[in-house]
Amino acid sequence: MRRSAILGVGHHVPDKVVTNHDLAKLMPTTDEWIVQRTGIKERRYAEDGVGASDLAVPACHMALERAGLEVKDVDAIVFATLSPDVQFPGSGCFLQRKLGLPGVPAMDVRNQCSGFLYGLSVADAWVRVGQFRHVLVVGAEVHSTGVEFTERGRDVAVIFGDGAGAAVVGPSDRDDRGIFSIRLHADGKGAEDLWIPAPASRHMPRITHEMLDQGLQWPHMKGKQVFRWAVEKMPEVAREVLDAAGWTTDDVDLFVPHQANMRINQMVAMNLGIPADKTVHNIERYGNTTAATIPIGLSEAYAEGRLKGGARVLMAAFGSGYTWAGAVARF
Ligand code: UT7
Question: pLDDT by residue (tens digit) across 248-277?
């Protein structure tokens, strides 16, 4: 069976820069706390009226251009987000309309920080079996409208940022290039460790004034718990995909981990024995853009000349659900 490959990567972040000092004016936090605990210095916020699918449009154009393809070459869209434009329909449908691709299938995946790799796995399978030739895999998020700038919400509010990344997946033209392995995992026992409890279809009505007063519409996170799981599961799945590809960590030219916390990434890279100069970090500039972090990382690495033809790339993510995933690809 023909291998699939990532043919092009792109990204887009909003222009508005929000520093830690800006956030410290809104709630009790400090630049020192945020930098020490997370490594984040600033993040980007979208303007009012801009949804995840809007951020995705320029990211997709960039990915297609770098792949040497046009919009009309796209046969399917997989859109990963935890902050869809609206509850339904999926952001993939809005993106499909904005790109001008009537009739082309658009599917949303809801796997939070692991969403891009879950989407990549779907695209990889579709391309390998020949169902679709060129699949756009998108990770895009607008978090700034969904976090609480108060003492109660400050743990989450300081880490999330807005942004979008995209990859075009298509058939590989060489046996030694393409996606070599992807592995996906989930464990629902941590489902309430990072979640938004309401509005919820299991409540009648889905949201009440009382729920709003309790702040159930905001993300709630057990940060230390999530941290512990991330530093265990990311190296585990990284080794799993390397083994499946027959590679070792020495074969890795570039490690693109999910960007949730600089300390998590450093611990994961150290555990795997991957040096800092081979690891992509952009959390200091963007914070955690959940499903968008890996494609943004790939796209910036490409622009910086770190993702050259032949580069062996390891990707790993962990997030809400819990979900975690890894992939290795040769560009
Ligand atoms: O991408 C998806 C997954 N998300 C993650 O992977 C996040 C993983 N977790 C983390 O990155 C860390 O747990 C955080 C950065 C979120 C928090 O760091 P922590 O070292 O685990 O801090 P903590 O939650 O234990 O809080 C320590 C203290 C608390 O005060 P007390 O109880 O010691 O008085 C918090 O109330 O820091 C306080 N705190 C803050 N202080 C200033 C929490 N958030 C803030 C804040 N600014 N933004």
Answer: 999 999 999 999 999 999 999 999 999 999
